[in-house]
Amino acid sequence: MADNVRELRPRTPDTEKITINLGYVDLGHVDLMVQEGFYSNRTDFIRTAIRNQLERHADVVRQSTARKSLDLGLRNYTREDLEAARRAGEMLQINVLGLATIAQDVTAELARATIASVSVLGALHATPAVKAALADRMR
């Protein structure tokens, strides 16, 4: 039965893995909070701490997002989007806070012809060839 199941679109991960360095005492405090049942694991503690800080500074983040004209959340650029920009003679300025995705079928040549700049606070998913083609346009 599994032979007739096809994935129509590859699923984009919901998260990006990061690595942090933490002092032993701070790590011990985190482990104690987990052991005492306040958090289910270290990741739960760290995510909660980050969300609390983001909420604490939400007004500043909102103002900066507006000032820098950032698209907030998930932004996908398809081959059709870039071809339409090329037909219109436009160059795209990609400014995203979150996840920017350039479709897998976008060629390096099409990306260079249609994307003037890329600024992503979060993560950029694109083929290695497209990332290399845009390297000098990334801020």
Helix and strand sequence? HHHEHEHEH
SS content category: alpha/beta
Count of separate DSSP helical elements: 6
Roughly what percent helix? 40-55%
Rg on CA atoms, Å: 20 Å
Low-confidence stretches: none
Name the average pLDDT. Answer: 91
Largest sheet: 3 strands, parallel
Beta-strand content bin: 15-25%
Q: Indicate how many domains the architecture comprises.
A: 2
Give the strand order, joined by hyphens, for the main sheet. 1-2-3
What's the count of strands? Answer: 3
What's the end-to-end separation, in Å?
Answer: 47 Å
What is the overall shape? elongated
Structural summary, described in words:
The structure is a single chain. The termini are far apart. With 139 residues, the protein is of the alpha/beta class. The protein contains six helices and three strands, in the order H-H-H-E-H-E-H-E-H. Helix 4 (79-88) packs across helix 5 and helix 5 packs parallel to helix 6 (128-134). The protein folds into two domains: 21-56, no CATH class; 67-137, no CATH class. It has a three-stranded parallel sheet, covered by helices on one side.
